[in-house]
Amino acid sequence: MPHVPPTHLADGRPTLGRSTLQNRLDELARAHGVPGAQLAVHTGAEVIGVHTGTADAATGVPFTPDTVVPTGSVTKLCTAAAVAVLADDGDIDLDEPAAASLPELRAIPEVTVRHLLSHTSGLPTGPDSDTAAGLTAPRLLASVCSPRDLLFAPGSGFSYSNAGYVAAGRLVEEVTGMTWREAVRALLLEPLGIRPVLLQDPPSDRPVAAGHARNTASGRLVPVGQNLAAVEAPAGALLASALDLLAIGRALAGHSGALPPAAAEAMRRPAPGARPGALADGWGAGAALFRGEDRWWCGHDGNAQGTSCHLRVDPLSGVVVAFTGNASSATALWRDLAGELGALTGSVAPAAIGPGHGRGPVPLPADCVGVYRNGTVEYQVGLDASGRPFLSVDGDAQLPLVCHSDLEFDLADPESGRRQPGGHFHRDPLTGTVDRVQVSGRTARRVKGAEPEARPADLQGAGLHAPRHPGAAAKSVRLTAGSHLRGHAPVPASSVRAEAATGPSPRPAHTPGYRSAPPSPR
Q1: Which residues does 55 contact at the CB level (< 8 Å), separation at least 6?
Q2: pLDDT value at residue 345
Q3: Where is the Beta-lactamase-related domain (predicted)?
Q4: Average pLDDT of the chain to the nearest whole number
């Protein structure tokens, strides 16, 4: 971005002019092939909103400040906020077993409400939307909520789970006697002054943006539909403008009467055991936690079919940044734009977690090789014909895997070699053997390969029995790191449920003087 001397707010904080932001959003949308986008910023002293482009490439209808975009998993913040409001009223205890209200979870009484909201329950991701379309919430939960399905003992790990938010939505319904849609409107959205728009609702009088995908034959962007199943609504049904997300972010910072400050703080408080890997640096009871240059931020990312939406909140200063874009490539636009907003907010909002630059590749431990499973999704870690490590999801293309000494790994695009954080392997403290892998925030348990001899220590008491194996080889496999492994690459799409999935959000290297975990935000 060309250098533009900043002006200053009354409190001395630098600010870019609205016209500069508008021009930059226009430029980046063209550069990244995004039909339309919105950016809204609350600097702590004023609100600045800009938008660009078209809401639908087929019709040419322009974006407006009021245009709503399918936000995907940003919806989860609203579901968590509804639970937090009920908890603040004394109707729910975040640390009580969810099974107290949900009979579908009675087989796993260790799972608490807080576990559901912080993705530390051990529940799998859940069925895809096509399968979920034929299920009620009780039937969906009954299919994934047995001790056999748990990926780890509740509270001992992190695995991003849409099923957990289906359960949270069911909990809201049980406690309020309303549908989730009615409750999230009444408890949060309408008190915030938001005119709610949800997938599967009757047509709204608000303009709606379509998601877009690129036709590989013609290279043209074409509108795509949303296929979220009705039962998954608590995990991904919200449509919102950037200004709507700004209102949600201000509430998350504790600056709104719609969400009591104690409830907002509960959503931001770091959950023990939450290590989200490529998604964020920590997780609270609903809010993702991101480590910035000099402070902790919170928020959420969301990708629906052909959209990319992002929210960042600094609870200390009250700064909120909200972005919506109606193409998958808008994620890259957001990352470019977020880094430039420091001149406006006084602190750079962390947009993404970076690959392991500065850490050389190491040999892949032999006991990482194997097959892992999260529900019905299968992850294979193996060696290609040249002996180089790879990851494949459900038999899809083999993505080169670059392992680091701390068992974190990057994934590389096979064509460009661009790298992006992929996740990490988990070594069982009892057996010393790798028993799990986390890919884009989703944990998968080993089912084949160099499997642990004994029950993993962190599955004790969860009713799970680890498979046995004849013994792991003592050798390691040398990783060949050629030029094709540099840069960034997308996490495999098949590992992310696009209809309600958070986009990957790579983690920066540790900064001296940082705590290893986020402080409890005030």
Answers
A1: 35, 36, 61, 62, 63, 64, 67, 207, 208, 209, 210, 326
A2: 75
A3: 22-329
A4: 84
